[in-house]
Amino acid sequence: MATSMRARLTIPLTARDHVLGPADAPVTLIEYGDFECPYCAAAHVIIKKVLEIMSDQLRFAFRHFPLTQIHPHAESAAEASEAAGAQGQFWEMHDLLFENQPMLDPPHLVAYAQELGLDLKRFVRELEEGVYRQRVREDFLGGVRSGVNGTPAFFINGDRYDGSWDIAPLITALERAASVAEVR
Amino acid sequence: MNTQTNQTENANARSALSAGTRAPDFTLPSTPDQKISLKEFRGSPVILAFYPADWSPVCGDQMSLYNEILPEFKRYGAYLLGISVDGAWCHSAYREHRNLHFSLLADFEPKGEVARQYGVYRKGEGVSERALFVIDGDGVIAWSYVSPIGVNPGADGILNALENLTAKKEKVAHGN
């Protein structure tokens, strides 16, 4: 008899994660994403709206899941977001990368860093030295262990969300998770 | 993309060969002019990943995902074999397009014969289930799973099975 599987997040949120929203929000949404994945870029627009609508009811975290064999710039884009994060601008870079998805080659990454006013010397050196490669790989492997099966993958309060991530069904699922969490 | 789970879709979960069963041997084309037999891998774990068809229209499809995770499978000394009823020429084009670094076997003639042996053939559609088998170095199935056909099962189950195999082997090596 084949065994059943239910995908649960295996790596809890910690201080190393990039998080938006209050720590005591009743719902936590975690995305495993790839900056070069067109579906993730589409989801990015939706997540922004959902964050606005849910306001302090929602905490959102982004983890890396670059599919490097089909997306040649996904890994360096992920590392660029970490390099920006090291200078306090992860989310700003995250947004720029998704909003400029067709242009993720190295010169563009540097241009985005410049736009954000980052210390360029440090940014370039850290990318060249692969300072954040391990960190990105850790996110990826943690995702694999949690049952991430493509990008974007979402977890709502620890359960993989296999439904549609259009705005209405996603909000319905988040609100349901919020009410369950509050009953507890 | 994500699909709803359907109870009836998963009928083959019961007929799929289960843990403890000897994995039926087979020989299938891996390219238009090469063949691979399961028994060639004796001594190493093998992951058999049956899937319905090449060319599913998403980014992170199951085979592309496993392609990314290949280094992890290798850490356990395991070999990954993808199997579908597509022909060898179709597999070649698909492998090249997705930059896949593992073999795709053509269960093409007689169609679905190996899928039938493993209990994961869908007669109505003429394709195999999305089914996973982890086979140990002795050729015995250590773990199997049939996913709803529209749901990519990911790799967590495979990695857990490989980890258990390694733990078992170490236990034997230490004599208890």
Task: Give the SSE map.
The complex is a heterodimer of chains A (about 180) and B (about 180).
Chain A: E1 18-20, E2 27-33, H1 38-54, E3 58-64, H2 74-86, H3 90-99, H4 106-115, H5 120-128, H6 133-145, E4 153-156, E5 159-161, H7 167-183
Parallel strand pairs in A: 2-3
Antiparallel strand pairs in A: 1-3, 2-4, 4-5
Helix pairs in contact in A: 2-3, 2-5
Chain B: E1 27-31, E2 34-37, E3 46-50, H1 62-75, E4 79-84, H2 88-98, E5 103-106, H3 113-117, E6 121-122, E7 127-128, E8 130-135, E9 141-147, H4 156-173
Parallel strand pairs in B: 3-4, 4-5
Antiparallel strand pairs in B: 1-2, 3-8, 6-7, 8-9
Characteristics:
heterodimer; A: 184 residues; alpha+beta; 5-stranded mixed β-sheet; 7 helices; 5 strands; globular; B: 176 residues; alpha/beta; two-stranded antiparallel ribbon; 9 strands; 23% strand; disordered N terminus
Task: Walk me through what this model shows.
The complex is a heterodimer of chains A (184) and B (176). Helix content of chain A is 48%, strand content 13%. With 184 residues, chain A is of the alpha+beta class. In chain A, strands 1-3-2-4-5 form a 5-stranded mixed β-sheet. In chain A, α2 crosses α5 (120-128). With 176 residues, chain B is an alpha/beta fold. Chain B has helices at residues 62-75, 88-98, 113-117, 156-173, and strands at 27-31, 34-37, 46-50, 79-84, 103-106, 121-122, 127-128, 130-135, 141-147. Chain B has a 5-stranded mixed β-sheet with strand order 5-4-3-8-9. A two-stranded antiparallel ribbon of chain B has the order 1-2. In chain B, α1 (62-75) links the parallel β3 (46-50) and β4 (79-84). Chain B starts with 26 loop residues before the first strand and ends with a helix. Classes of the chains: A alpha+beta (184), B alpha/beta (176).
